[in-house]
Prior knowledge:
The complex is a heterodimer.
Chain A: E1 4-7, E2 10-14, E3 19-25, E4 32-38, E5 44-51, E6 56-59, E7 62-67, E8 72-77, E9 86-93, E10 99-100, E11 104-109
Parallel strand pairs in A: 2-11
Antiparallel strand pairs in A: 1-3, 3-8, 4-5, 4-9, 6-7, 7-8, 9-10, 9-11
Chain B: E1 4-7, E2 10-13, E3 18-25, E4 31-37, E5 44-50, E6 53-57, E7 64-70, E8 73-79, E9 87-94, E10 105-106, E11 110-114
Parallel strand pairs in B: 2-11
Antiparallel strand pairs in B: 1-3, 3-8, 4-5, 4-9, 5-6, 7-8, 9-10, 9-11
Amino acid sequence: KQEVTQIPAALSVPEGENLVLNCSFTDSAIYNLQWFRQDPGKGLTSLLLIQSSQREQTSGRLNASLDKSSGRSTLYIAASQPGDSATYLCAVSGNTPLVFGKGTRLSVIA
Amino acid sequence: ETGVTQTPRHLVMGMTNKKSLKCEQHLGHNAMYWYKQSAKKPLELMFVYSLEERVENNSVPSRFSPECPNSSHLFLHLHTLQPEDSALYLCASSPHPGALNTEAFFGQGTRLTVV
């Protein structure tokens, strides 16, 4: 059974810092890994999708990497801003639909 | 705006009530999903529909009854719920379930409170 773990559970950083969020999964037989952002009480916004054959994807200040063989992904956020404050969720899909981690709650302090 | 719309956004219901959650997508996707998000727990998959046929039911109690009348609409019918069913219910859609390069899009969710 696929399990997804995200570390740290919460993170607080000053504005302008670069930061890394970590995601690990137990079954490397995945099709895709997707990073989402969730604001309090809201739905999920898709940030990046990485196919199993890809190593990384970039969108603006976000860069996500995937090491499928070791079951790891990282989300790198450059020059963090207060507007980046949210919960970031990692999810993997394979023969089963998306399986989620519990998320990392990020606070960027102005 | 993700292209997936859920109504209502908030719902308070008694344990003896019957209500329905609605989800609509205009992305031309073939798969739709219901997820439950409770405090301090990962999102839990409840139901998956592919081309209007239910393909997965993750041991969800029968007091939750899904319906998918067409590929654009998904409902979750609720009856005789318990207070522990209070949660954020999220609908999602994707081009296909379990396929390469299939990106999922989520609605804003329905915050359900059972009193």
